[in-house]
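With this grant's support, we have settled on a layout for protein records. A representative record follows, to show the layout.
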Amino acid sequence: MAQSGDRHFEIGLDGLLFKDNQGKAQIFLPGDAYVRSIMGMGQLRDYLRLSHSEEHLRRTKFLRFRTESYVSCHSGEHWLRLYRGYPLVGPLTKDKVEHALQLAIKHIKHTQQPDGRFLYYYDAARDSRRDHEHPKRDPDKNPFYNILRHAGGGLTCIYHEKANKTGDTLPNIVRALDYLVASTRFAEYEGKTGAFIFSEKKAKLGGTGIALYLASEYQLLTGDTRYQGWIHQLAWHLLHQITETGEFIYYNIYLDRPVTPADNHQYFSFYYPGEAVCGLAKYLHLAAPKDREPFFSGLRKALHYLLVIRPRERAEEYTAVPSDSWLMMGIMELWDFPQMRNASYAEFVFADARKMVDRLYTVKDAPYPDYAGAFYYQFGDYPYSDGARCEGLLGAYELAVKIGEDALARHLWIAIQLAAWSVMHLVNTEDAIYSAPNPSLALGGIRFKYTRQWFRIDTIQHVACFYAKLLPHWPN
């Protein structure tokens, strides 16, 4: 796949023809990459090795071919044209975006457990909950559950409610919040109680940040004040995780061991500070005006570190395609408060957005049609279709609209529409799950990659939230 020209093998578009040990012709169809959840040549070889010995593969002549591919649709009334194994997306429409969001919400409602947890991970090709990042963990006896991604499941329901105002997922949000409340520990700061989320033997800055974001959004949306005291405690904790230098404390407990400020640098997280900023930014709408100044002061200190000092101290953490979408969204949220309007904050958001757009395949330069709208690190890379970065782009667009940067907003909107078309290739629609052994669990999932059948609650969250936040801006 890394070769160019005639030596290039495009997974999902190229098939293989070869003979087995008995001389019988065998075919690996191009679309089998999608059906079998194969994204790379090593994975393809592993799949072939299961049926044929390594010795046989090494002495076998393989012929590469391409086909037009079709599958009978779920109703059986007509045939669907496939590309890379996925039904053609066609033009992006508001109806398609709304349908993708509704499918994601139905999946979340269908799979949320009574205690509030979401279906964390699912491999639709194998009908398995075994996580590729933790392959030795038995999902029944020893399940892994990332508390940040749990809160993201609740946020998906929040943005669905803000876009559609149905009320049908409010019970799901309450169950998600109750699970977070049950995962709370407490600490005293300046004579007042702070609260933080503790899970999997860790207390992560980002876990508390997104919990605060979710709870604040819920109270602002519904007026329900049942979590108000807890919300204030979460915010008080986060404020006291900002050190004198402006750097956040990333974990205050790690594997059941308290983390000291002196050890903080060993537990660095690129994304947790942005998540904390998002939580505090949304919380400020609930805080009394007389109580906001300490939070403004702490956030200014934190943003100075994040925008000025961190790029120098942690230069190796930055990628060619900017990835701190939480921070971009947090600054956009803070713009609601005049005390937090700073030209350097806005310029950071717009600069990262421009860099994202510069690393976005376009219709004119995409090596293959479905690459358009996906990100790349080096031109020619396999498409990196990413809902989280799409949320960052949309945050930049919303900030441009708030400030009145109309030309920039128009420029970003063109890229956002193309990116929205790209992530539609990740959505498990009714037509896309033709090969799933358990369609009821596969439907509504939003996958990691074009030919990968894995999805997780956060891969659903980022695309579904992006779509939900996109809808109010859609031209009538």
About this structure: Residues 296 and 340 are 7 Å apart (CA to CA). The first strand starts at residue 15 and ends at 19. Residues 293-313 form the longest helix (21 residues). The chain is about 45% helix and 10% strand.
